[in-house]
Amino acid sequence: MKTRDREKLAKQLDRKLTKFHEEEYALTGVVPVNNRWAFVEQVIDSIRRVEYVRKIREMEHSPQRLEGSSPMFDPLRGAVLKAREGDMEEAFWLVFLSTHCGKNLTTGWRLCGDIYGSLGQGKPWSWQRVAKNVGAFQSWLDQNYESLQGHFGNHRKYESVKPGGKGTGAVVASYVSWIKAGGSHEARIARAVGQAKGNPRVAFAILYWEMHDVLRFGRVGCFDYLTMLAKLDLAPIEADSTYLVDKATGPTRGARLLFDGQIDSSTSPKLLDEKLARLGTALKVDMQVLEDSVCNWQKSPSAYQLFRG
Hints:
Helices cover 59% and strands 0% of the residues. It is mostly helical. It folds into two domains: 3-55 and 243-297; 61-231, no CATH class.
């Protein structure tokens, strides 16, 4: 985004925040001018991150984006390539792996690539291969986990590839079971959209709560996975909430600071979710932007910092 465009957007957001503060709900935390501009900058960063992923859908991508051992490997661009080929099941699977592994600030997509590409030892661990015999995947991972060089991303920093009841092998097995219980990725999403009568926000909510059946995929995992499907236009869904009611520590602290001026206020997550939904409408940004913005802003509320990962 050009400097001129960023400044223009910042002024627009500032005006909308002021109007919201005066006419709907008090935004006590951004009354101090430093806080307000730091928050505005975080909103802009979040908007840019969402727009960047959406642009990936229109770009041309090298086949090497699908080669796990290549330094060019990128599961999101790979998902776009697979979707263009009509292999939607593989596209969804790549998004799941990207969400579970995350992109590490130092090692990038290396962990995801090592797993998907089976460390260059043979055929990739494609959706078809894993779904057909998830036990074989778990055995391979148990035997090779010490050879994986990459690291988990920030949102998945407490995960592990080690053998055990809650490691990657178990997570993948639970995801395979969840998808198979719905028939396929496309069938599960189609059913949710049908139940929602085509309402993308209702469909998101249905899938969000259903996905809690996947091991280790709580609020962050489910939210990140489903919003990525939406950004890549793989599913006709849209986040309807920031889901603070689902044990959201950072975003809840940020929302309390934003509305009440203190991170430890007594305002309930349910009410905060409702207020953020109203604010999203006023600012004309989606729930992912607000969730990301308030979480990053509360880390440094009076001085803007760029956060990645």
